[in-house]
Amino acid sequence: MKERRVILMNEPVFDSYFYDEQAFNLHDTAYKPLKQAQAPATPLNIPPLLTPDKVDGDDVYYTVTAQAGATQLLPGEKTKTWGFNASMLGKTVVFERGKTYHMHLVNHLPEVTTFHWHGLEIPGPIEDGGCHAPVYPGEARDVTFKIIQPAATAWLHAHPCPETAYQVWQGLATMAIIHDQEEASLPLPHTYGVDDLPLILQDRNFHAGNQFDYRADYDPDGVQGDTAVINATVNPYFDVTTQRLRLRILNGSNRREYRLHFSDDLTFTQIGSDLSFLPHPVKLKKLMTTCAERQEIVVDFAGYQPGDTVTLYSDDSPLVEFRIHEFTPAGEELPTTLTKIDYPTPDPSLPVKQVVMSGMDETVMIDGKKFQMDRIDYTMPMGKCQLWDITNTNDMNGGMIHPFHMHGCAFEIVSRNGQEPYPFEHGLNDTVAVNPGEHVIIKVYFQVPGVFMYHCHIIEHEDGGMMAQLKVVDPAAPDREYHLLNHMTLMEAFAKERGVTMDELWLGGMDSYKKMGMHM
């Protein structure tokens, strides 16, 4: 049995956001500070779990439907929103390691979309659900994949190029949770909706009649709203009935970084990163999360009494109020060892892959090029580990942090500018935030073949071309070819669905190409 020891009281508590403070988005001239909405406190929405259509041994069948709806976010008119099996965001999808999932993906929206399983190590490009797997209005797509990775918090979001940012802004993002036997054996909060909570952090602007207006808010460096919307709830509170809460934090925003801390300077414990537990828990007072990152934390309310409140903040803006009720004292302490990361050793025959993220606004690129859907930018073998050197050369106006994301794999962060990664970065990840002028070395290893994207996850940046594409070759099928769509295929679909000509079509990412004198 795995050794479990009580966390020692003299273990370090980190009281820093760690990242380059001068590059925080609050220093951006386009930064929009959060403000508290004129709306009553509302119970935090806990998205229900998606119910399988059928379970046959280790085969599980789900239907996921992208649909339009209306959500009561503010007093007055409901806001027109999109979601997965819900009016906004969606139902939480649960996967178990070792099982095979048959996904029936249905599009009831008025325009083409895709279903991207962000964080799942599944083949690409079709199962992965990026831009090459469109589902047109009124149609469906069936995909099947096996979950081969450890317990983690992943998510599902739309990913049609170059309209990803708009569709996520409309609400097409929801959580996906992977369970395994190791997780089940750990003394952690496990009851979904009671002591194991999804916390999807987003921000929105509300225009006339409480409606979104993405085009009015458009910014090529990322759209930000002035109102925090957490789990599709404005001004949320949660009734705490257990001593410990496990929060699965997802930064589901298009652009915003969140600098998280609790009232009373409360210490909390990070137990997980994007795609695994941390080998050892890390105690923190502050945590910054950039776009698409996930962090699992445990908050301990020992010492609080019924009637007390604890508030989660980003900078000086309240996000969620936790209202303390009677609870039974927790039992077993958190272990000091959560997992062991056995990541493969880099293959010495593979050179270090250099990736350069550059620019802001319309100038964003990877390796000096803007994304083309039908172009393969790099090829690497499946089953071999390679070092990648990710550089952020941006220095415009002091530069900005770019969150670098890879589809289809879990990577290990090796170093930042030759130094150790941050204390909370020793798990497996699919996204890493890179400071201006910084080199981040990661180990990249694919267990599955296919064509996968890698990009900045400020979503307007990826739509604007800060994205590239690699082909992972299965040595058992080295000659396999993939049918890749081009941008024009999807843009013509958007124009037809909206009843406009190509000259009249507006998609935010198109402007980034046009203003650089480039074609999609």
Automatic annotation (TrEMBL):
Keywords assigned: Cell cycle, Cell division, Metal-binding, Oxidoreductase
Database matches in Pfam families: Cu-oxidase_2, Cu-oxidase_3
Superkingdom, taxonomy of origin: Bacteria
GO MF annotation terms: metal ion binding; oxidoreductase activity
Domain Plastocyanin-like: 69-182, 347-473
One GO BP: cell division
Presence of keyword Cell cycle: yes
Spans through the membrane: none
Family to which this protein belongs: Belongs to the multicopper oxidase family.
Alphabetical list of PANTHER family matching this protein: BILIRUBIN OXIDASE, CUPREDOXIN SUPERFAMILY PROTEIN
Name of the molecule in the record: Cell division protein
Organism of provenance: Limosilactobacillus fermentum (strain NBRC 3956 / LMG 18251)
